[in-house]
Every structure is written in structure tokens, then in C-alpha cells.
């Protein structure tokens, strides 16, 4: 009820979220503009399903902290996330996309897929089909490893959200 769908895209996202809750799909990908409610919807789903919403940066930070504290392994950090009954990974494609980060993401997608854990992926990147050929390398699909893309072909809804930034009024430098 907290998510107020105003546009057709937002209504599609809300319906896909309901499909994830009731098990009609296992994976939901939300792509698109800043401030269109992707993260808000993920946070609401995490509360409803008892899961977690985490960014790629936070996953990296948890792994770095594990190395600094010398407690556990990368797998321990990732498996800790897989203990949740729902995982939303936000800001995919915002980080540098190092080999390590892509391996962690691939591992999480694979294990969520095989364990049938509901999974949500969120990015501001565009789908390749929406981009001119010369910049398709910046697409959502280009960021993900091929094994992950293959797993995302099953039981997945992809919703592209376009629209205004609903977070607030115009930026006002005087507020700072």
C-alpha cells in the first residue's frame, strides 16, 4: 500500500512485485530512471518477505571487512545473504564491476536460482535493445556474466521504469 503506482511502468512493477510475493515468478529485474521507486519497492518486498535489500557496494564492503578481520571467507559472506528468504541487490552496474564483484554477483544469482530464493535485481542501466549499437556495452546485459543471464531467463519479470524523479522537488543549492 505504501508504493503508489502512478504510471503504467510503475503499475507493471507493482504487479510483478505481487507475482514475486505469491510465487508466480522467482526473479524480478527493475531497470530505469533515478527516483522511480525501484529501491522503495525492493525495501517493501524485503519487509514483507523477511529478506534483505543490499547494494553491490555493501556486498563489496562486507567482503573487504571479512578480509580485514580475517574472519571467514567470501563464501561465508555470500552464503550469509543466501540465508534470507528474499534478496534484493540494488545499484547493479554502479560499481566498477571488477572480476571479483561479478563473480560474487554470479554466485548469488546462481545459488538463489538453484535454491529457489526469490531474487530482485535493480539497476539504472538500460537494456541493450534500448540503446544505440555503439553504446550497448553499457547495458544491463553487458554488465552481467553470461551464466547469470542464462539463469535470469527463467521465472523472471523485467520491468523498465521511466519517469520523473519522485524523491522531491528540484535541487536547490540554497538548501545546502
What does this structure look like?
With 176 residues, the protein is α/β, with parallel strands linked by helices. It is built from 7 helices and 5 strands; from the N terminus they run αβαβααβαβααβ. The chain has a 5-stranded parallel β-sheet, with helices on both faces. Helix 1 (8-21) packs parallel to helix 2 and helix 4 runs parallel beside helix 5 (99-115). The mean pLDDT is 89.
Which terms would index this structure?
alpha/beta, globular, 176 residues
Q: How do the strands and helices of this protein lay out in sequence?
A:
Layout lengths: L7 H14 L5 E6 L5 H12 L2 E4 H14 L4 H9 L4 E4 L8 H17 L3 E5 L16 H4 L2 H6 L4 E6 L15
Parallel strand pairs: 1-4, 1-5, 2-3, 3-4
Helix pairs in contact: 1-2, 4-5
Amino acid at each position: 500500500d505504501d508504493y503508489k503506482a502512478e504510471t503504467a511502468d510503475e503499475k507493471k512493477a507493482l504487479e510483478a512485485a505481487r507475482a514475486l510475493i505469491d510465487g508466480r515468478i522467482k526473479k524480478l529485474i527493475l531497470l530505469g530512471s533515478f527516483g522511480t521507486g525501484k529501491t522503495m519497492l525492493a525495501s517493501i518486498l524485503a519487509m514483507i518477505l523477511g529478506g534483505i535489500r543490499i547494494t553491490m557496494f555493501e556486498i563489496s564492503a562486507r567482503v573487504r571487512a571479512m578480509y580485514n578481520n580475517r574472519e571467514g571467507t567470501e563464501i561465508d559472506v555470500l552464503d550469509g545473504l543466501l540465508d534470507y528468504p528474499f534478496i534484493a541487490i540494488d545499484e547493479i552496474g554502479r560499481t566498477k564491476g571488477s572480476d571479483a564483484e561479478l563473480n560474487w554477483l554470479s554466485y548469488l544469482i546462481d545459488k538463489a536460482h538453484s535454491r529457489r530464493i526469490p531474487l530482485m535485481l535493480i539497476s539504472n542501466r538500460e537494456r541493450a535493445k534500448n540503446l544505440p549499437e555503439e553504446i550497448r556495452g553499457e547495458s544491463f546485459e553487458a554488465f552481467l556474466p553470461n551464466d547469470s543471464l542464462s539463469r535470469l531467463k527463467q521465472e523472471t519479470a523485467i520491468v523498465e521504469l521511466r519517469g520523473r524523479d519522485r524523491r522531491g522537488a528540484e535541487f536547490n543549492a540554497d538548501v545546502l
